[in-house]
Automatic annotation (TrEMBL):
Residues 23-96 form the BTB domain. This is BTB domain-containing protein. PROSITE patterns: BTB (PS50097), TLDC (PS51886). Gene3D superfamilies: 1.25.40.420, Potassium Channel Kv1.1, Chain A. Residues 298-469 form the TLDc domain. SMART domains: BACK (SM00875), BTB (SM00225), TLDc (SM00584).
Length: 469
């Protein structure tokens, strides 16, 4: 057995950092008047950071008296001090750092290719700095927008805004949003906003970003044709993202019609036809209503919940939905990380004869599996199998959202759900087509469901069950 004494190594390296008598690197960080020099050791920096390994190659460095001189004017000295301590000791404490400093640390750790630190900082912002993030959505999004590695934080901000957009759209920061960020918000199906509000705020944003308009010229009755043409150009990418079919006829007349000249002709004509006939053509240029499905899942996104809802109604996965058809509510009744991942825990929470959805995230896999039963899983004194003609099982690929989806509907209605009254399983669709046994998920094929689901055996990382209203 190998004994490990990492703490002593960390202490020794901390002493090296603090004393640094034998340093061979001087790093000048920041700019006047906020500039500071740090002394360090090239071998440690190269071993811990791919960035420094490349930067200290012969073609990059300047030396004076065999000491490498290096400049990083774009990094704040307080932030670099945190980074240097992390490089030498593997320790970082963010609890007393301001949100601004943590964002700076995120950007710097990304630049220096410190992947472990970068992920830790990103998770800290999402999990521990929730209130600060909510107050500074625009600042954060503008800072990280072009960093592909910040996808997790970027998505977290957009999802949080979509869940409650009013604080943002009523703030003075809204009109400063970059066009690409506003585009990403408006195109989302899960943006919980009344469409007329989206339209009015889009017009306000457009006026502020159009030369000749804005606060000094906000009375549209005095606008020239050139003013309307300029606004149309500003909003050309964004107007098609408005779900015009959700705007009432009265709001259309009062708030949309006056801006007729900035709306593309094909959209405007189709909207007028919709208001008169209450129907859209099959190939509509107007986007379908946004999703009104309530689910608080750690496993799937709103778009996947939308698809599952369509499957429940036996529709195509991406079929559009009328506003009144999107009022599904998924009520969480079981979560493995909260209630325990085992047969008994599942049974304790999920014994009911009501429509139930199960979602499973597996360890060491990018697959998400699930199953739907309109009749529940248990009949205490019932037959071995429970009858259902509408059950199905499915899978998504976690990183691809709705790509490579698999759907398998029940074929043998009298063998839809194995009645797990003897507690051998948490749940069992068909006869071992998709089933839970303690902390494991298994995928098989009995012939009772369509042969459309691929997979093997997995250890469950997270599992959720929902009662559906």
């Amino acid at each position: 057995m190998t004994s490990k004494f990492y703490s002593n190594i960390s202490k020794a390296l901390a002493i090296m950092l603090n004393d640094s008598d034998d340093y061979n690197v001087i790093i000048q960080v920041g700019e006047n008047p906020n500039m500071k020099e740090f002394r360090a050791h090239s071998n440690i920096l190269k071993a811990r950071s791919p960035y420094f390994k490349g930067a200290f190659s012969d073609g990059w460095i300047d030396k004076k008296d065999n000491v490498i001189e290096f400049k990083k004017p774009n990094i704040d000295p307080d932030v670099f001090e945190i980074i240097l301590k992390y490089i030498y000791t593997g320790e970082v404490n963010l609890d007393e750092q301001s949100g601004e400093n943590i964002i700076k640390l995120l950007i710097a750790s990304d630049e220096l290719l410190l992947e472990e630190l970068f992920e830790h900082v990103q998770d800290h912002l999402i999990e521990k700095q929730t209130s600060w993030v909510k107050r500074h959505y625009v600042f954060i999004l503008h800072t990280i927008y072009k960093l592909s590695s910040c996808k997790k934080l970027h998505e977290h901000c957009l999802e949080s805004i979509c869940a409650n957009p009013r604080p943002l759209i009523t703030s003075k920061d809204f009109i400063t949003l970059d066009e690409d960020i506003l585009y990403d918000l408006l195109k989302r199906d899960d943006l919980k906003i009344e469409e007329i509000d989206a339209w009015e705020n889009l017009i306000k944003w457009g006026m502020q970003h159009t030369p000749g308009l804005g606060n000094k010229n906000n009375n549209k009755t005095k606008w020239t044709t050139r003013n309307f043409e300029a606004l149309k150009k500003t909003l050309s990418k964004l107007i098609p993202l408005i779900r015009f079919s959700e705007i009432s006829s009265s709001d259309f007349y009062d708030k949309v019609r006056p801006f007729k000249t900035i709306i593309p002709n094909n959209i405007y004509e189709e909207l007028v036809g919709f208001l008169m006939k209450n129907t859209l053509p099959k190939k509509s240029v107007i986007l379908p209503p946004r999703i009104r499905i309530q689910i608080e899942s750690k496993i799937i996104k709103q778009r996947q919940a939308f698809i599952i809802t369509n499957w429940i109604e036996k529709k195509d996965a991406n079929a559009s939905r009328k506003k009144e058809e999107t009022t599904y509510k998924y009520i969480l009744i079981y979560r493995g990380s909260r209630d325990g991942i085992d047969n008994q825990s599942f049974e304790d929470q999920c014994i009911m004869d009501e429509p139930t959805l199960v979602l499973i995230k597996c360890q060491n896999s990018n697959k998400i599996y699930g199953g739907y039963t309109p009749v529940g899983f248990y009949e205490e004194y019932g037959e071995e199998f429970i009858y259902s003609k509408d059950s199905f099982i499915f899978s998504f690929e976690e990183n691809e959202g709705t790509q490579n989806m698999e759907l398998s509907r029940v074929k043998s209605y009298d063998h839809a759900i194995f009645n797990v009254y003897n507690n051998d399983y948490g749940f069992n669709f068909g006869d071992h087509d998709l089933y839970m046994q303690d902390e494991n998920l298994y995928i098989g094929y009995s012939g009772y469901y369509e042969d459309n689901l691929s997979g093997n055996d997995y250890e469950i990382e997270e599992i959720e069950a929902y009662r559906i209203e």
